[in-house]
UniProtKB/TrEMBL annotation:
It is found in: Membrane. This is Putative nitrate transporter NarT. PANTHER family: HIGH-AFFINITY NITRATE TRANSPORTER 2.3 (PTHR23515). Gene3D superfamilies: MFS general substrate transporter like domains. The gene is narT. GO terms for cellular component: membrane. It is a multi-pass membrane protein. GO terms for biological process: nitrate assimilation. Its main location: membrane.
Amino acid sequence: MEIQNKATRINLFNFSTPQMRAFHMSWFAFFLCFFAWFGIAPLMKVVREEMLLTKEQVGWCIIGSVAITVIARLFIGWLCDQIGPRLSYTWLLILGSLPVMGIGFAHDYTTFLMFRIAIGAIGASFVITQYHTSIMFAPNCVGTANATSAGWGNLGGGVTQLVMPLIFTLFIGVLGFSDSLGWRASMFVAGLICALTGIAYYFLTQDAPDGNFKELRAAGKLPQKANNKGKFWTACKDHRVWALFVIYGACFGIELTINNIAALYFLDHFDYFQDMETAHAIKMAGLFAGMFGLMNIFARTLGGLFGDRFGEKWGLSGRVKWLFVVIFCEGIALMLFSQMSILVMALPALIIFSLFVQMSEGATYSVVPFINPKALGAVSGIVGAGGNAGAVAAGFLFKTHAITWPTALFIIGAIVTCCSFLTFIVRFSEETEEEVRLAHELAVTARSGEKELATVIGN
């Protein structure tokens, strides 16, 4: 049994249909999760000075922030298949907000690291966002829907680099808080908004176009929970899933890494910031670091959009070829950025790299929905976990004293370039290609019929 009545178009200004409500709520929820997840990153200079953190301890904080997300994403994919994306997102947002607010109680390296690790669970929100849009949109536009919802969600990683320093400045400059109390109050605000969004998600969305999973199962329109057994292991046995696991680690994992280190990287490696007062330096570094994340406004969407276009012309193999191109270019661009020692040259290199890393993410999830539609949650969860596994692996390069951060970025860029060749083992059978082609044609026909009906009604 397949999900019926998927949307064949993305009408951004339509909030009346369940498909578009799910689209808007899922990207907004992911945006806030990303904002809270990396809210502390642009304030790490203050935390580092207050708690006297060493380079190694900062490195462990970077690793900790993404480590638990690997497990959380594997679990949340299974949970979506069981109870649906609506309840999954509601509980994740509410429970995930607790450590975001609670990090304000950290008083030393150990307690700070524990809260940083716990906050990472909220990163599992990505899997729910991709799951929800995948079951709401038809094959002709699912790549664009997935890429746009995830891209606008990832935008939170850029916005937090800009906004959290401003909130911090508000607390210490206007309300008279100390630096120590200022960063804690800033994180409390981020967590509170996440909790409120979780409540809104419950009331404003539904699991599928025709209703919630519980009602659909009762009506016989969706397999019972018992029938979901074995889907996770089926996904685990598919070598294509693990190829995409590594590939996603080479794009999204690197984005997570950059979100964690960007502000400190600018502060520590460019002379421009050396003579600035601390609060001003943090704001400027956050502004430049935010440029990386702000590319998500359109870059990830482009990855999914071109994935759909390549798929329309060359089938599923076309989607994979597009993925190879962007992930290969991402690796080259990162190596280029790592060699920039002058700020005016580093910023354009960062933007070019950002364009390709985010297009790679969109391209990856223009392929994921077609790997195994019957185990969508499992596949999405495993591939999504790959992103965080990549971030964990990359994080170890930033905690050692043996190599500098620019050298670490160059090494990562070389690894990403090599990983692009894994796309060659992501292949589809002729039967699958034909099934997707027919589904695409049906979606296009349905969309044309909607246009004709709208024209008749308008006349």
